[in-house]
Amino acid sequence: MRYGDTTAVDGLSLTVEPGTVTAVLGPNGAGKTTTIETCEGYRSPQEGKVRVLGLDPVRDATRLRPRVGVMLQSGGAWSASYPHEMLRYVSRLYADPLDVDALIERLGLGTVGRTPYRRLSGGQQQRLALATALVGRPELVFLDEPTAGLDPQARRATWELVDELRASGVTVVLSTHFMDEAERLADWVHVLDHGRLIASGTPKSLTSEGAENTLRLSGPPGIDVSGLLTALPAGFQVVEQAPGAYLVSGTIDPPLLQSVTTWFAGQDILLDGIAVRRRTLEDVFLDLTGRELRS
């Protein structure tokens, strides 16, 4: 897909497996929105082929619409519409919609039924957009930044709803800038940059490659780290990085934690803090796409 001299999507090839939550990640301008809008049928690819549930999203749009839910980042609602009326109208377009009242209650929209859409808060607009994407019981749902602007309670409720969708067999394609959200929800992650697929895998596989796997301890300065080292299996390193700040490097697992705490208990030393440091999806994302801001 090109816009003038700009190639937004450049020979991209990826697959989403049924019944999974797949996160599509990338910095601004990476081609995420163009890719997802092409899969939703809003754009026709200039080259290549797209199939959604085995169908062409443009040519077979009439057959696909009853099976696919779309949450637009811009909301897609008429500014003067009332949330409850809009949701009930959308529900009547489907043969077997969800219970509208239950969905309204679940997403915390019960008190805004007579508030025009334009007067809703950003978070309320987001929740209404999510409701309209789900009310038709879709087999596949595209969620574009589903928790942008939501407070922690609403964000957590949205996560629980996505978990329930997966458990019921619904396929979810999720675009988000929140790396913790992708790591928490996704079965599979595709990372895009400059219109190309640059990494793909489960959150665990992506974060385990080259991961920093360390145990950080804080306590009294000058602890005998050589003594601690003798209590640990072969292959570990222990250093005092700064007075009272200790670093244990190796494969950190429950038996290792038990060995460390048992040794300190035997020395009658009370630690001030203990923390396991593992590579996160955000670390992977920044390593792959760079750490500088983009316009």
TrEMBL record:
<dbReference type="InterPro" id="IPR050763">
    <property type="entry name" value="ABC_transporter_ATP-binding"/>
</dbReference>
<dbReference type="GO" id="GO:0046677">
    <property type="term" value="P:response to antibiotic"/>
</dbReference>
<keyword id="KW-1003">Cell membrane</keyword>
<dbReference type="InterPro" id="IPR017871">
    <property type="entry name" value="ABC_transporter-like_CS"/>
</dbReference>
<dbReference type="GO" id="GO:0005886">
    <property type="term" value="C:plasma membrane"/>
</dbReference>
<dbReference type="GO" id="GO:0005524">
    <property type="term" value="F:ATP binding"/>
</dbReference>
<dbReference type="GO" id="GO:0016887">
    <property type="term" value="F:ATP hydrolysis activity"/>
</dbReference>
<protein>
    <submittedName>
        <fullName>ABC transporter ATP-binding protein</fullName>
    </submittedName>
</protein>
<keyword id="KW-0813">Transport</keyword>
<keyword id="KW-1278">Translocase</keyword>
<keyword id="KW-0472">Membrane</keyword>
<keyword id="KW-0547">Nucleotide-binding</keyword>
<dbReference type="Pfam" id="PF00005">
    <property type="entry name" value="ABC_tran"/>
</dbReference>
<feature type="domain" description="ABC transporter">
    <location>
        <begin position="1"/>
        <end position="219"/>
    </location>
</feature>
<keyword id="KW-0067">ATP-binding</keyword>
<keyword id="KW-0046">Antibiotic resistance</keyword>
<dbReference type="InterPro" id="IPR027417">
    <property type="entry name" value="P-loop_NTPase"/>
</dbReference>
<dbReference type="InterPro" id="IPR003439">
    <property type="entry name" value="ABC_transporter-like_ATP-bd"/>
</dbReference>
<dbReference type="InterPro" id="IPR003593">
    <property type="entry name" value="AAA+_ATPase"/>
</dbReference>
